[in-house]
Amino acid sequence: MAEVPLSASNVVAALNASISTDAAMRGMAVQQLQRWEAAPGYALMLLEIYLDASTDSQSKFLAITMCKNTVGRNWQPRSSHSISQQERDQFKRRLVEVLCNTDPSRIQHLAEFILLLRKVCRSEFPAKWPEMVNWATSSVRSLAANIAGIPRDQALGLLRIVHGVVKEQQTKKLLSARKQTFEIAPHILEGLLPVWQHFSGATSDWELCRVVDGTTLILLCIGFQKLYLVPSGLNIVSSVFQRLMLVVNEYPKSFKDPYYEKDLKTLLKWFAQIVHTHPLALADCGVDKMLTVILAPGSGWINKKDMPDFFDRYLINIVQYCMNCTAYRKGISNVTASQAEDEQVRQKLISTLHPQFMSYITNSGGLGSAIVEPVINAGLCVDEQNLRDWFEDPDEYLTGPPCVATDLRLATEACLLAAQQDPFTEALAEYVAAAANGLVQSLAQLANAFSAADAVRCDAVVSLLNLYHTILRKIGENETDPNKRYASVIVDRIAVPILQLPPTQPYVVLLKYRIMMLLRTWAGELATSQRVEVAVGAMGRCLESNQEHPGVRFQAVLSLRSLFDRDPEHPVWVSNGLLRGIIGRAMDMLGSSGGVNVPEAQWRLLTAVTSFVNESELSDALQMPLLQKLVDLWRSPSTDELVKFALLDLVKGLLANYYSASTYSIGKELKTYPAVIECSLTIAMDASGLAPNQPPYPSSTGSSPTCSPLRVGRSQPNPPPPSPVNQATITGALSATQGACSTIKEAGLALLVSVLRAVRGEDQVSHVLPLFSQCLTRFSPEIVESPELNEVDIDLITEFVALHLLPDYNPNAAEAVKSNPRQQFSPQGAEALSHHSEAIARGIKQHLQHRIDLYSQDPTMNAPKAADDRLADKVFRLVRMLLVVDGRLVDQIVFPLYQHFITFFPADRSSSRSSSAPLYPFREEPLLMTFATAMAHHPQKFLALAASGGLESVAVGAQKIMGLMPLGERGSTSPSRRSYLLPSVNQRCLVLAVPLMLLSAVADSRVLGADAKGLWVSLWNQLDCLVDQVEASQAKAGGSSGVSGLLTSTLRELRSKVPSHAKMPYPYRVSACMIASSLPPDVLHAQDQDMLEWLLKVAVRVVTTFDQRLGNGAGQALLSFIESDRLTQVVGQVASSST
Questions:
Q1: Which residues form a coiled coil (predicted)?
Q2: Which of 973, 981, 1003, 889 has its CA nearest to residue 935?
């Protein structure tokens, strides 16, 4: 496509083509406009097109809109197509020229022009745009000087522009921006205040009044650090409240004017902000008079009917800000004799406002009557019509009754919480206690004639008990009065009677719903007050009843889960099969026939069931009917993706619960749960696409005609319409349940990993082994698009390798290290595995090479993160397992990696530590263990390859390996005070053998020279430390040191490779394979003493080799480097026993 030059005519043509009905033309025009964004002068040209008198109205609108968007994207220097400083300066000058030379009422598309102006002001005003400050100040002063002579439309246009600039300044939260506002606001307000005073008594032209009121109140709110110190500041605030009273009283006459309602909202919103930001400025207004006008019984504004939705909310905000003001509540805490004028004024105002506030509360009958009652009536009582709509359409409000999260209710709860602060805590508690007692007395009437209004009032009291849980709990902790032991009162005298009511009326359902939420809030106190059994019984009966509202039963499951989490050992859970019944009823509620169709609610039900399953012994409850429900729900075409993730998490939790590490402890009978395995494997194969003739589920990032990234499932001839799901809820649910698994397929593969860890017996193993070939294709470089492997793929291959090697392994982890697991490896499995060795090696090599290439390009930018390290560590773990049975990996992977290590790993680690970048693309510990495993299991092959590089290469390798094995704290001889890269004796023995055997491979006389002395001294000192540590352990144990730390270090390594949120079955086969890889073939028992003896024999062979090859006392020369007499004696003893 030929490049279209940037010109005014071409831009106008492209702008008009961008709204063409021809899709092809529209697409080309949009692409061209995007290309021009990078061109210098584009934004300024758009502005000129808009200002050109010859441009038609549509083109003007398109130009100013495109200009606004371009400026918003590219004004900042850090943007990709940043507008140059020269163009920005020219752009600002042109805007000011327009403002100075044009009647605002004649500016076309003024709203879009103001938005453009705000975009520029966002970054430039006021510090970098003094011309705009001068224009704003001078224009309002001119308007004030000739307010009667300026046409109305011109005044309105000018004030709209000033309002836009001021409102943009209000959105800036940085302290530097606020300080700049403090500098310019007084100058703008000086000119604007006479204009506002001129219109303060106006009850017409609400459009103009709204702009004047809004601009003035924003400046009062944000323009002064201490408004009470401003001359006449208190009087101005008092005048603002008088203006607000005038506008409120005009409601019956002017409510049909849309600008009247906007002006009313502006005044309420910003007056509330003035109370919040400048509470001391209300001294002249009188906080007692203000609260009386707002809250007075009968006549207060809060009692007005048919007001706009925002009206009560802003009134309650004003009351909340008053309650939050410490000066109002407590007065002057510390009266000082400060000479500072500011402090004297502050103390004087507080001494006026505190009595006003307390006087209002006292004269109104106390905190309850003055504040709490009117606020509850306005914002906490549910509207009867909303309640009936919810009752008749439970799906819409399944996760909550009406007015649970509306702006009004949230403001009301915030205000009521503010009322519990000192000095009103005790008075508020007494009010709530009286309300609770009144509720108890009223419950006797519920079965008789009880109006909906009375029930709504009871609902408000239940909400109070929920809201004030914290202070009521503290009061009831040591209370002897039974009426104030709130946990017992709530269960016995409120919850039980309400939950026994027949659910025939909407208000009864509402009360039951609130009670379930109340019991969930008080779950911790119920557990400590021994009311669990009563509460569980009452909620369990509601859950069992098919007559109950679905929302009530739904909340019952969640509340029971909260109680169970806090007291899972209570005997009530196992009596009469209660827990099995809860799980069964919760599962029955899922799906269209169960009443719970909202995806978010289904997800919450499944997570509750997961909690029950994960924390309890439910072997008798895990029968095939329950598991079949899971499979049916999974395969239902109407099941949402959010629910599918929860199902996968639930099934994985089942496996983790019944195949955890505790099931492999000594002396515990090993059980199998074939039904769980069958259910898990079915769902895993469906989700991962491994099931025969079943395509994989699509990615979460796919598209859908209704709910694009959210819908998954098999395609059906007539699929049901998908339920709408909130994107934020999906994202939160995925992070909470799956972590790294961002798609159904990946989550299904993760579940398959759990299945592989749990399978046991010939039938189960033979069922899953054929899946290895399919999973291996995801590991192959020919199939995978990116060289970066997925973590779940590495886990799968690792588990399949372990399953091949140990299909019949007895999974007793604590017994595993009493004998080398290598002896139990299956020859048939190793043979079958060898056929796939090339494919596995290619995938590993490509991944490692990709990491090395990235790091070499830019070590700082591409430094491995924690997740990268975990991924690479798992790859090395897989290599170590395969090395036990396949020596080909030494040539293919280990030795090339060793060559890279000796070439690029920093020799002087201390000099590299000043940099924030890691030393190397891989962590040292798994790297060293990989080299040591290859050396232990295939010494001849590894040494032959290493020796081919000559003495220099061998010496560099030995020095770098020893550099990673410091002795720890300088001067310390205690093993407990030394820190090691490798935590166990076994691992250090294995790694220390590598440099010893490397040096023996060349046996050159230069290795005995003075230059090599430091290396040999370090080697012998490391060996001496190992002898010291083993002897100290034996002395402490009074005999043999027993099982070494190999098992502990192995388990620690396995745990460190699992994200903290993941719950998986214990990988007993992989653990055994790792232990086998850490033991040389001729070491039959993984005890510290055995490994030390093996290493000492290696050392003796090294000495013997030097003697045989070099003669002339070469071996004795090596021994002369030993600085410890004890080590000399030990080596001599081992040498004697060997001969």
A1: none
A2: 889
